[in-house]
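Handoff note, outgoing to incoming analyst
You'll be picking up this chain. Sequence as last confirmed:
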Amino acid sequence: MKLPSMKYADGIGKVKQIKFGGLARSLGAGDGEIWDMQNMTSDHHPLLSSRRGRWKKGELVSPGGIFSWDGLCWVDGTTFYFDGAEKGTVSEGKKVFASMGAYVLIFPDKAYYNVDTGEFGSMEASWSGKGVVFSDGTLYGEAATANCISCEGVRWEDYFRSGDAVTITGCTVEANNVSLIIRQIDGDKLYFYENSFQLGTEEGEVQLRRKVPDLKYLCENENRLWGCTDNTIYACKLGDIFNWEVYDGLDTDAYSVDTGSAGPFTGCISYRGYPTFFKEDHIYKVYGSVPSNFEVLGSATLGLMDGCAGSLAVAGETLFYLSRSGMMAYTGGIPQPVNEAFGTERFYDAVAGSDGLKFYVSMKGGQGRYRLYVFDTQAGTWHIEDDIRITHFARADGELYMLSDDGTLWAVGLTDAPEGATVEDAVEWYVEFADFTEEDPNKKGVSKLQIRLELEQGAEAQAWLMFDSDGEWIRAGHALGQEAKRSYYLPIVPRRADHYRLKITGTGACRIHSIAREVYSGSELRSRSGRN
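Most recent structure output, in case you need it:
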């Protein structure tokens, strides 16, 4: 908030600002609006303050990603960790995570970890071998015709479960190369519905496989794991992450549908109780509770930019994501842009997370520079932290964790140290205001600055001025450094200019309560060196 200017007898006016907003990188930004910043926060809004230090939780040598489900888990190289303990082996590379029930799912490996039992394994299962016999058998205690697969010495329960959908291949009798659901398992015998096969013994190698789709993006909704790839949406059998091809005509069946629209899916998330899928120019929601009444409805609108699936995050009950036209806010209807603060700058390669009320997003902007931006849903403001590049976010135990591209695991927003963590060094920060014109088309001058701020012990700050965008920052007064909250008068050598800029830099914790400027108006004449 800028208070009205009050002029003294000598024509010098005093303008005071006591409320500060967020980023406003626009050529139309007015006096007191912020053009650029680093390591600033809205924690003490409407004050202007530097962010708290992050806590360094650990370092990964070859980071593949982090995730949270009843504990913090991550992939480092080819090892999956849960709460710091090794649990299984995966391929090296960037991972996509999801959770359902007690399971943590890791893609593209199609691996799972059960947080209750500690079991780690593959969602898929397969067996291959020779000497497979197709014969008559039994079903639920009654004799049955052409429904049995057996192989001497094989314990089928080591591979499959009753209810699994399996695909049979490699048979010389083509009619036996089918996909069926196992109804019962008895030692070395698998039982299916009657008349499933042609009878006989296969001398060649036969393979039985329980398959999981090659999902690129996935989420959990209403006890089903949902996913998508290319143009197709998939859902697993109710409560069963291992089965994606069970079609019995029951409410518990798996589900899949091809949307048919142009372009591949770019991401998905469960939002407000609906599986929600994105393309760059479409948003699809799945309505219904069972496969028989599932309905996929799409709308042609600004969807999710390709390569930015990680930017989907919910903060303050609003879903945020990066589209080709900028950052969007989605509440279930038409997405609304929330990128006015960035002016004409465009972003790519966005990854985001949320602490519940704040939306954190790391993205690449102009000249390939990555920065971490934070949107406060309560204050409605954007702030910039630093040039760190984040690859994954996770929220564990109510706290937000970030994994940077160099493998450092950070905890943010904490006041107390997490176990085994160390706080980063004093944060260097700055805030640069847009051009001050004092709403006066004439030349004007600034003679004094009065800054009321609070610096924690050991912190310091310095004010700087630039006139007429000449690129030279001139120190304004002395360095500021005192623990107590107080005002500082900073005298300035008077200089006429069409406009000027103010920048405040510092190290350590600082809260700025107000800034007052003493300015005077001149004429429309051109200013020149040495002339007041």
